[in-house]
Amino acid sequence: MPSPSETTVLRLSILVTVGVALFGIVFGVLSGSFSITFDGIYALADASMSLLALTVARLIADYGSRPEASGRLRARFSTGFWHLEPIVLGLNGTLLMAVSIYGFVNAVISLLRGGHELKFDFAIVYAIITLAACIAMAVYATRANRTLRSDFVALDAKAWIMSGGITSALLIAFVLGAAVKDTQFDWIRPYVDPAVLALVSLVIIPLPVRTVRQALADMLLIAPRDMTDQVHAVAQAAVERHGFLSFRVYLAKVGRARQIELYFIVPRGLPPRPIEYWDGLRDEIGDAIGGEGPDRWLTIAFTADPEWAE
Q: CA–CA separation, 73 vs 80, rounded Å?
């Protein structure tokens, strides 16, 4: 069976997430659970970001494979849509952290006010069904991304794992809350819902930090060390092989895109050579760099004037 595309995975994720979110909000109202309502709102926030990610993923894919599909947008964004990817990833992670912080604050307020009663039977049914959906989607997205290697799908799989962790904690808490009814621990039942919400919020707040940090690095055009070392090694080898004087390298990683500009300083007074010769050198250097495809933006120039390379 062929691997699903990035847009297929994200589209299915959005549909399931919206269903889980609406399901959570309805059961949150029926059971009187703040934590379930929070889970539904969290899922809606995730769905909105997934929809945005899907739009950007389609723009990037169309730009590389179907130039005519981008239409007027391509005319306005002539250098591509890769820069939108870290913006969406950063916004996604920041929004999820903000929702979690809001949930934690509300949980603390509820605890200080003595908690509230909860219909544990409704809550347990919700947790079981939602946990099954989270596990299924996390496995599906993770397996699909072994081939896709997409940051969007990776973040989506992580979001399903996070949602599954939240729901697992809710399920355990609800079962324990139902089990202590009419026992000496019956007094803790009003505190179960806000306590588990506070705990879950504290756990998931730092999870998107790595994604936000990487997105910020991409927006600041910070090239990864391994990418920098590889391109410098290829350029230095070309200088030694062809007798150039030096080179200048300008690199950036923007989402899935690698933007590489190479300027080689050649000796003055070289005998004229056909353009095919220089194109052949570009092919040789490009093959050595590797990663040829729609997500590599490579410029290679030759000049005898160092100022053109600065």
A: 9
